[in-house]
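JOB MANIFEST
job_type = single_chain_structure
chain_count = 1
residues = 336
[input]
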Amino acid sequence: MVIKKNLSLQTYNTFGLPAKAANLIKINSEVQLKATLKLPYQPIFILGGGSNMLLTKDVAGLVLKNEIRGISVIRKNKETVALKIGGGENWHTFILWCIKQGYGGVENLSLIPGTVGASPIQNIGAYGVELKDVFLKLDAIEIATGKKRTFTKEDCLFGYRDSVFKKTLKGQYFITAVYLQLTHRAHQLNMDYGAIKKILEERKIKRPTIKAISDAVIHIRATKLPDPADLGNSGSFFKNPEISRQQFEQLQKRFPAIVFYDLPNNQVKVPAGWLIEQCGWKGKRVGNTGAHAKQALVLVNYGAATGQEIEALAYQIVDSVYKRFGIRLTPEVNII
């Protein structure tokens, strides 16, 4: 195994921040991982695609970069197919592979950055679909013991952009493989979001396929979100807050134009981007960082920002939204 020392992580995180790793090893198999965990390095930091984190300092100990690859069919019947995907596979590349194979269920999650192994941690979601909708199980290695464990959907405790791996088991497991169940016929297309419907109508698509849905989502995301290769960012920085119906109705009296989505259990989701925009942050630049001009939910690095600078901006935004709306935003990005 090759240990890279004092390595810049600038090309390993989508914010393009110049934090350094004291030591880094690229992991390409469970066998190599178990051997690596016997080395005398602490603490252990797990790195996937670097797309959902904000590095505010150098990383001590040992960084394990997940590069475990491979996609295989483990079961197939008349309508569904079960897949095993290596944790180090690029998520969007995997989506494109599924579209090519005619496998449906994840097309709404197109162009989400990151790795397959990171997807359950965040319970990634977009345009009415979440990972948990197609999730079967995952394999992971416990960092402390090197023991392998399989987590079921119930074990993962999935919530909105949340799982057990962001709570009680944070940083304790290295996800080596994810198992998903997709469809290969009779696809259940999710077109409830108006933006998708609009694109399909503009393209005069009356009988959409999974590829048409994927293409629409890619178009929407590409026009709304900056490419990290051009402008450092981590996608949506904050979660969309969910509030009680009572609190929402009080807000609606004060702000009749408030954007919202009804949820079960008398809850209402309010888009964080709308709240941030109403507070005047959209397109506003503060030093080397700012909120993107096309999507206020996205904080960007204009080329020389530090993690501390972006973090400071994030909490200025949190404070201003709370002051005006009484809603406290929660970062979706993992702040290191």
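[summary]
The domain at 4-66 is CATH 3.30.43.10 (Uridine Diphospho-n-acetylenolpyruvylglucosamine Reductase; domain 2).
The first helix runs from residue 30 to 36.
exit_status = 0
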